[in-house]
Design brief:
heterodimer, A: Alpha-Beta Plaits, Alpha-Beta Plaits, 2 domains, B: 42% helix
Chain lengths: 258, 250
């Protein structure tokens, strides 16, 4: 066997092994269902469809992980946030085709859409690519035998694509590592590719509870590695982040991230 | 629960303090960088002392922890009346030293802030007096502001009645410290009920949230309100703040 074929075979085996692993979501979509408290049970109907209709069908179609969250403390509520992970954009296309051909899902969707009452006010969707430094969505420790975690979603807008790229680089050069060291559990770090308010990035952290949030951020702020990183030229917040927004979320039924 | 005695202390204080007539809210939207430090310096060394010199107006200075825009600093002042807002403002603006210090803050290399939005709220009759806790809390408290927007004035009346008759007591019983209840007179998102409560920390807030949601009296009250006025808060906005170290009320 020549060196060339050996390499090709090894590469092929690695690719096959990767294909057999559960999808980790190198790309993902975040979809908001913005709702209102209403007599027609908008929230219950939408949660029922997303958790009971979409989530199992998406898993059948190879989407993964699937996360479903509701607002715990958020600037605007109520909403439902749906996370759909895909290993690649080609896999996303295949999954969407499978969903379109899934009779059970089509039935659930038709029932959901058949109500004369509004199901949501509007949807908003963004397509993300995971950072090279955190290339997969992490579903976290096994959910059996523990309480659902508290999730924080944070969005950083940047003035331009150059400063956004620098902020993403900074996450890879230590910020993500400091999160882990501080006891915070990263779920994903995504660069928004298609969606409103570009350029921006959005990331999600999980904590055992709100006390874990307070403790984690206190440890993060005091960490010497973080202090060193942020003091580097060009890495000051003011130079690379133009707006921050955040929200606390709780997992809803059907969520693989809990 | 830790919050309950504090809530009672706040009420006891309030009984002695003056009744609020209206609230002036000033929301400073800031850029990351030097603006926050410069604003803190201005508010603590210039604005608050100048206000105190003219009139004792209970004031909170809050730093947003959860919001659509961070950093945001919100200044909340409880005035006895709209006339007082104007007379205090006129006296402050007539002070040359205040004007010079304000110019010095605003005249830096960068603009002093990104945006400034102000609102005038009419205090609800049941809104407690804004007063410092006695004793002062060990650490600055967490404040939660909510805006419940209604479609009609009738819904707004129903919402105010629900809070004034019973909900404010249930909130305190579950561990929240009621801070203010008002409706926007000059500002956006009308009609609305804007209200605020305080907690020792975010953990106390979490405990309150669970206790309140499980309170059978609240479940009953909510249903009565639904039956009588329909689903009222058709839209809501929420901001979580922490009091700044230099806030007169923390």
């Amino acid at each position: 066997m020549t060196r060339r074929t050996l390499l090709a075979t090894a590469g092929g085996a690695a690719a096959m092994a990767a294909a057999q692993e559960p999808p980790k979501g190198a790309f993902f979509e975040l979809r908001y269902f913005y709702m209102r408290n209403s007599k027609s049970n908008m929230v219950q109907r939408t949660t029922g469809f997303v958790s009971g209709g979409y989530a199992p069908a998406a898993r059948r179609a190879g989407v993964g992980p699937v996360g479903v969250f509701s607002a715990s403390i958020a600037p605007e509520a109520p909403f439902l946030l749906l996370l759909s992970g895909y290993p690649s954009l080609a896999a996303m296309q295949t999954s969407l085709e499978k969903l379109a051909a899934d009779a059970e899902y089509q039935k659930a969707q038709a029932e959901y859409n058949a109500s004369p009452d509004l199901a949501y006010v509007r949807m908003e969707s963004t397509l993300f690519r995971c950072f090279p430094s955190a290339p997969a969505i992490e579903t976290g420790p096994a959910p059996e035998g523990r309480a659902a975690r508290t999730f924080e979603l944070r969005t950083y807008e940047s003035d331009n694509e150059g400063t956004l790229a620098r902020k993403i680089k900074m996450f890879g050069e230590g910020e993500v590592a400091v999160f882990r060291k501080s006891g915070m559990q990263p779920v994903f770090f995504g660069e928004a590719l298609v969606g409103p308010k570009l350029p921006r990035l959005t990331y999600m952290l999980a904590y055992p509870d709100m006390a874990g949030h307070d403790k984690g951020w206190a440890a993060f702020g005091a960490d010497p590695d973080w202090q060193k990183l942020r003091a580097q030229p060009g890495y000051a917040d003011a130079e690379i982040v133009s707006n921050i927004s955040n929200a606390f979320l709780r997992p809803a039924a059907g969520s693989e991230i809990r | 629960m830790a919050g309950a005695p504090l809530a009672r202390a706040a009420f006891a204080q309030g009984a002695a303090a003056r009744k609020p007539g209206c609230y002036l809210l000033q929301h400073y939207g800031l850029q990351l960088g030097s603006q926050a430090t410069r604003l803190a310096d201005y508010l603590s060394k210039t604005y608050l002392p100048a206000l105190a010199k003219v009139q004792s107006v209970p004031t909170l200075v809050l730093d947003a922890q959860l919001s659509e825009h961070l950093p945001t600093v919100t200044v909340v002042s409880a005035y006895a009346s709209v006339e007082e807002v104007w007379s205090v403002r006129a006296k402050m603006n007539a002070d040359k030293a205040f004007e010079d210090a304000t110019d010095a803050w605003q005249g830096g290399a960068e603009p002093p802030f990104d945006s400034l939005a102000t609102e005038l709220l009419e205090a609800a009759e049941f809104s407690p007096a804004l007063a410092p806790l006695n004793p002062q809390p060990k650490a600055p408290r967490v404040f939660e502001m909510r805006i419940y927007q209604t479609r009609t004035l009738k819904e707004l009346r129903g919402l105010k009645q629900r809070f004034g008759d019973a909900e404010i007591k249930l909130l305190a019983r579950a561990g929240a410290q009621p801070v203010l209840f008002g409706t926007t007179v000059f500002g956006s998102d009308n009609p609305n009920l804007t209200w605020m409560m305080a907690f020792e920390d975010t953990i106390a807030r979490e405990k309150f949230s669970a206790a309140f949601a499980a309170d059978p009296d609240w479940i009953k009250l909510r249903q009565q309100s639904l039956d009588r006025y329909g689903q009222i808060p058709s839209f809501r906005r929420l901001t979580l703040y922490r009091a700044t170290d230099y806030s007169p009320i923390r």
